Amino acid sequence: MAKYPKVNYIGNKEKLADWIIEEMPVKNGMVLDIFAGGCSVSYALKKYGYSVVVNDILYADYVIAKALIENSDTRLRESVFEKKINEKRVEELEKKFVFLAECLYYTEEVRELSRLAAIAEALKGYEKYMLLALIRRAMIRKLPYSRMNVPWEQIQKLRDEDYSYMKYKRKRAYHNQSFESHIRENIDEYNNAVFAGKECKVYNCDALDMVRKIDFVDVVYMDPPYPSTMNNYDAFYGMFDEMFDKRRRHVDYTQKSSFLSNMDKLIKELAGKTQYIVLSQNTRVHPKPDEIEAMLRNYGSVVIKEKKHNYQVTGKGNKNSSKELLFILEMEDGRAK
Ligand SMILES: C[S@@+](CC[C@H](N)C(=O)[O-])C[C@H]1O[C@@H](n2cnc3c(N)ncnc32)[C@H](O)[C@@H]1O
Question: Is the entire prediction scored with pTM above 0.90?
């Protein structure tokens, strides 16, 4: 049975995905996961038999979506590591990736990463995206706190296994494993996650541009960065995008002052293009849930579902203080299929 693999995505909905699917207002059809991130919801939708359109602004997420959602049968062989590659290209990439050295990884690790990126470049079709998704996961696994915006001084400290043991009673030796060993550890899990579902399509654009590309979908699922929480996805994963020249400007949904007006614009653009919008939020967000509800009511009828949920980043004091919310908006001018 295909299973969503270890992706390590901050703010992911892996543990909530079954609940979100249960609450979907249609039981089949096409769903657009417009802020797809690590694709846990897209993956569950595909499994439950929906046709899925996947989108995220980050290339780091696009490669996951290509590998696990759009891909229906391509698996990666371990012999990929023996692939003959042009040494000149490895050197070129090493120069290109110099911004990662002594910033996220040690210089010799950047050399290893350049070799793996050169192999990925030489692959075709979904094999390339399978390897890129595994490279992304290996990069994250080697970083303390699983994100790319921790200062180098702190990274070095936390990668010192004796220091880590003394301070946190955990050596975290996996930060010091090679990229290749991480990929080898995860390759079966990623291969086993590949399966054929209904037709799926993947995009890598700003949410507003995404809406302009579609004609009609049954549901748009929205899991935007929650304003006023750990939400700087560009900083968490953007250096991966930078390696492949994919960093782009986009509408900012992370600010509490502009969140409502930006969401309002997005929903306005969706008029006539979907029957339902399902929006994930939680009770601790600002703007407050009743402000979000009031904005949504301008477009149709709204039902709110809630479920207890604690994100792993929450501290002791926050335990059980948060509930996950789903706003289900039936659009007034949603055209039925
Ligand atoms: C809360 S995360 C989604 C998590 C996802 N549901 C999961 O389970 O992994 C929000 C996502 O919105 C994306 N994002 C932020 N601004 C965007 C924009 N303007 N257009 C498209 N995606 C955007 C971020 O890159 C991030 O992946």
Answer: yes
